Batch of 3 targets.
Target 1
Amino acid sequence: MPIWTDSPETLHVAHPADVPQTSVSFEVTVTDGQSPLEGALVCVTSAGGLYQRGYTAANGQIVLDLTVPGPDSLEVTVTAQDFLPHMGSVSVLSAGPHIARLKYSLDDAEGNGNGEINPGDTIDLSLTLKNFGTEVANSVSAILRSSDELVTVLDSTGSYGDLSPSDTASSDYQISFSNGCVNGQVFHLSLEIQDGEAQVWYSTLGLVSVEPIVVYTDCVVDDDGNGVPEPGDQVDLDLVLQNVGLGAAPSVSALLFALDDYLTVLQDSAGFGTIQPDSSAVSASSYRLAISDTCPPHHTAPLRLDISSGEEYSFADGLLLAIGARGFSDDMESGQGSWTHGGDQDYWHQTTRRSHSDSTSWYCGRLDTALYVNDMDAYLLSSEIILGPNSTLTFWHWYDVTIYGTDGLYVVVGKDAQWDTLDYIGSGGALDSLLMGNDWLPDEYDLSAYDTVQVKFTFHSDSSNVAEGMYIDDVVVSGAWMMLEDLEVPSPVVNVTLSLVDTALALSWSSPEAYAWVDHYVIYRDTLSNFQPAWANSLGSTVDTSYLDQDPGLTGNPDRSHYYLVRAVDAFGNKSAPSERVGEFERQLENIK
């Protein structure tokens, strides 16, 4: 049973109340009360030896093929992490008809014909029923219903005629999905089946709305030189896009825009073909950038990537290009290099006694005894390292210290007076003795919060027992040349003011503070003082910090007041929160006059 990590909730489980004593498809639907629950474990057992289990899919459903062995009732158990177990029972019918859904198929020829349920699609649904019972069911019919406002069943009734035991029949339905559906949204439709004897069976049909969602994931940089984008270079970029949605992304292409004065895009477009769900594609041709000679030697330049898929879908990502040599790498095979060391009882030195790669590592301990000494506070310090985006620190260590005490290595990064301890590797009574002294161990730390650092390894020992000590090898600080930038939403515009210009109203405002990438502003107007900005009350957009509203009859009517809001929109489509409202205008304008 899964371990609870939170207060357990109640599972909501739906399944047939009875089944015939034969082979049957047994459908179970699991939700949390509102949404489908994927990955719930469903188990069906009986005293006669039946045992079937499986996990629910993304639509919260699973169909188990059961061979019901005898008259004993079936037990249904459902478990999921952070939910109370559900226990249910199912009666076994020894005779009579039993109609259930066998399968279904979709046809979206009236949509884009891709075989998926996309927002705005109208689909034809073919539902096949089967008589799993032992007697004939006469005049079988069914009604398909939806309680979700985003789904409309246009043709809801199906006729299946007479079904003898093991007979199947199909009927067609038509369903319309709103444009408001989103990727991964699951809709549970109810199917009520009835025969001429007024016997009723129920089934739940889970349909999933899917869309492609295409994002940037990686980049290969080629500068025809050392592989480092530098001032004066022309750089080829091979971008990698991934479809993280549930629908296929056809005919993907992307345009690259520079948002930095030091960059010029020479080749701005490339195709990626069709990207299937959970798949990636590399640009069919390279993008090309020119970096200005006047660019600082270490600079991070923003770009925008506008991605389109067919004529229906568009996406935007923000990117950062790291210009100039970044990071650090030392396998300890070329002497002391840029490392320095010092502190109390400093016994840091290079050795060939142990190494992770090749023959050399740094060791903190006596050369003659291969032991460290008491009362050490000795450091090994790198030179200053300029970091690239999403940088990480990795290295390998071998160690043997006393289990109890305070002997160990502090992993520290920083510069000047600001230093942060990332980790402590050493004594404390909770060491795994199988790890000490037996093998080299890898370490990795996130440096994405830093721009420029030094790496410091400080070995400390107390005044008690000693052991062999600490070895360090293969230190690497690496980052990406280009990374996805989660750009913050623009701050709200400020200082919104109003003035009367003849018979028009003039708005002006100030740009958001500390945000350089505002692309344009959207203006909203309504006669309600507490209105919310929406497409219906949008007047238009401007790249300026002013707007002149010249609608006829706007001013001069004392019975009507107008209220305005302004929102900033960045190059990636992110909108700021609304500005403060200005109004009531007629009263204010009288004061202005």
Note: Residues 328-483 form a domain with the Jelly Rolls fold (CATH 2.60.120.200).
Target 2
Amino acid sequence: MDANNYGAQQGGWFNPAFATYGTPLAQKLTNWLYEDRVSNPAWQQPSEWAKVGRVAFLDRAVNIGPVAPAATLAVTANLGGGKNIIIFSRQATVRDEDAPAAGSYPVLPNELASYVSLQIQRQSGFIDTEDAPINNNFGFGYKPFIRPVPELWLGNETRTFTVTNTSSVTVNVLLTFQIALLDTGR
């Protein structure tokens, strides 16, 4: 490599968007996005990465429902559209499909979350999130679930989100994610 090695081997350049994570993790996050040949035309030229595109932070949503009592519904999605992405936070809202009757108290979305389970499985068959109550793996409302280390999702692998409703009402599930991807206009 040349004297301007921007690779992680010599503690080189990382995208400033990741500066708060410290150098080693910031470089890993940078490499994950910039080494993606789908989104970065200069994926083999680390010395050019500082000039290529920008890291875009986006909100993505997956709607699942309606899911009847004792039913299971699966939805397949690719949050990055084929590009490598980084998941920074995720949250779920589970709500009764029917509006509450006049004068009655509505069920809060976080109350139903313990009666709905979710499994996330990659196209390759690897299970990212085991089948468990959704409130164990996702945040809700004002408190999203944030991992200490962001999740790296491979761009060309779709995921199947499978919801099982064990409550007594028909529910709609909204999963929201804050992601980062490399925006190069491609």
Note: The longest strand covers residues 54-67.
Target 3
Amino acid sequence: MTKCVICEQRPANGGGFCVQCGNRIDAERKAKAKNEPRYFLTYRGEVVGLFPNGGKVLRARLLRRSAEKLPKGKTVNLDHYCVGYSRDIIKRFKSCVLHLSHA
């Protein structure tokens, strides 16, 4: 039976680490992972990113980026008509962008 290469106390599984040390390494990797926005909202030249915040909840954050360089598939331009979104959702998106830009 082989020992863990980190703590040298507990038995190692297939990766050479014990379960506790392996979980700690996975947690560190997840913490270092770059958090990319799922969607971008643009309105009156302001850009807001919608970031995943666990589950189905998205957290809005103002970004200092140019609207021209954003990926088209993830961008919702609120200056023009948006297909597939209800009027209520568009109002909430616009108020979110304006609230973050003037805060």
Note: Residues 39-102 form one domain.
